[in-house]
Amino acid sequence: MFNEGLSLDQAPPISVPFRFFLTAPIFAIIIGVLILTNDASLLLNRYSDIAIAIVHLFTLGILSMIIVGAMQQMMPVLAGAVIKKPILFANTVHTTLTLGTILFALYFILHLKILLMIATALLGLSFLTFFIVSIRLLFKVKFLNSTVIAMRIFVVVGLITILLGLHLAGSHIADNIGQTHYSIVSIHILFGIFGFATLIIMGVAFQVIPMFYVAKSFPKFIENRVPFIIVFLLLVYTLFEFASFDLTIVKLSFVIFISAFAYFGIHSLNNRKRPIFDVTLLYWKTSLYMLIIGLFVWFFAKEDVSYLLSILFGLGFLFSLLQGMIYKIIPFLCWFHLTSKGYFTVPTMRELIVENMIRIQFYMYMSSLVFFILAFFLTPIFIYIAAGLFIFSNLFFLFNLILALKKYNEIAKTDPMDMSSFQMPS
Q1: Neighbours of 166 (CB within 10 A)
Q2: What is the rounded distance in angstroms from the CA atom of residue 36 to the CA atom of residue 43?
Q3: pLDDT tens-digit profile of 178-214?
Q4: SS in 3 state form for 168-181?
Q5: How far apart are CA 400 and CA 352, in angstroms?
Q6: What is the DSSP string of 88-149?
Q7: What CA–CA distance (Å, rounded) separates 68 from 64?
Q8: Distance CA 81, CA 366 (A)
Q9: Which segments of 1-64 does DSSP mark as H helices, in order?
Q10: What's the pLDDT tens digit per position in 285-320?
Q11: Any idea of the CA torsion for 288, 291, 293, 299, to the nearest 10 degrees?
Q12: pTM (two decimals)
């Protein structure tokens, strides 16, 4: 089942990724509440303060939170890049990321510059700690495969993304919005979506789809070349943006290569070697289809469709896939840590989170996604229905994760040699 290079004995304590995964749906609930309590016209305007606050609650509180948490699990296991003090590292990154995200969003709501200053310092500490340590560890790894290479590219591009973000925050603090400010904003967004997020998802998909779904591997060109092509296109886009060149060819290239990744991901999932239905497939397939749709909307749209793109890329592509990933990772981690402690009979991965519970959460989430999209095409009123469903879906998501953790803790407190401990907790 496990690919070459998988080092399970080097995994960090289970509390390391769990704290990040459990925090993400809480930020999602906060986003839902903010949507419910604000005017729809402001929510649909990409330049409004509340829209900017919500976008960064998503990118920092959900997207970054899950990716940073997952990376602390994946680096030792998939790359053999072991963080020496994982608890201290996780505490530092998680605390500063959580507080920095809250204060950053509050700045756009309360307009107190001191909040932005503190938030920038906290977020800078969080991300620079994470990326500098990650770069140092990953570039020492000797065994290289497509996932490790994608991780290396991700941490470098991620660091660039964060430095651009810190520059933009510093410009706001100093009230120094120069002529190139909005060009840097565009570059920061593209690095965030196609660099920070998409590259790590590619790296995860190269390993997780064949491993967890007993599916075909991606073509070697996709695994070994496309991540580098994406980086090259990001650099070309940056040059063209500053030089005010026509971006059509660059955008088309992004569409072609990222769509190719999505296509082969869907193809692999549809042609699994063991075609047993798994509810998490719904998240992965939804995510990859939404990625393709989002790319084509981004390329062909002639008017401002920023709201629609944020829904398609943010909720349709990224959050859908990350939920599906977490639903696979958490049961696997619970199973792995229990068996490594000597428990011979433990709940299966499907027993730790009941599949019907995941299915219910998926349909609630998809309903919210549909109404968010309808709010763009029909009436802004639908955004409030979407927000309500989004809140309930994330409450359910959080409940499912807590339930798995509760089952794990109940078993972990028993004696592995006590046969009664083998009974599944209620």
Answers
A1: 17
A2: 10
A3: 778 889 999 999 999 999 999 989 988 998 888 888 8
A4: HHHHHHCCCCCCCH
A5: 9
A6: HHHHHHHHHHHHHHHHHHHHHHH--HHHHHHHHHHHHHHHHHHHHHHHHHHTT--S--HHHH
A7: 6
A8: 36
A9: 15-36, 40-43, 49-58
A10: 999 999 999 999 999 998 889 999 999 999 999 999
A11: -150
A12: 0.92
Residues in contact with 251: Cβ distance below 8 Å, sequence separation at least 6, in sequence order: 298, 299
User: What's the pLDDT at 29?
Assistant: 97
Q: What is the 3-state secondary structure (H, E, C) of 121-135?
A: HHHHHHHHHHHHHHH
Mark 226-250 as b/e (b = at least 16 C-beta within 10 Å). Answer: bbebbbebbebbbebbeeeeeeeeb
For 339-383, the pLDDT digits (tens) are 877 777 777 767 788 888 999 999 999 999 999 999 999 999 999
Q: With CA atoms as reference, report the closest residue to 255 among 287, 292, 222, 288.
A: 292
* C-alpha to C-alpha distance for 54 and 106, rounded to whole angstroms: 10
Q: What is the pLDDT of residues 318-345, one digit of tens each?
A: 999 999 999 988 888 888 788 877 777 7
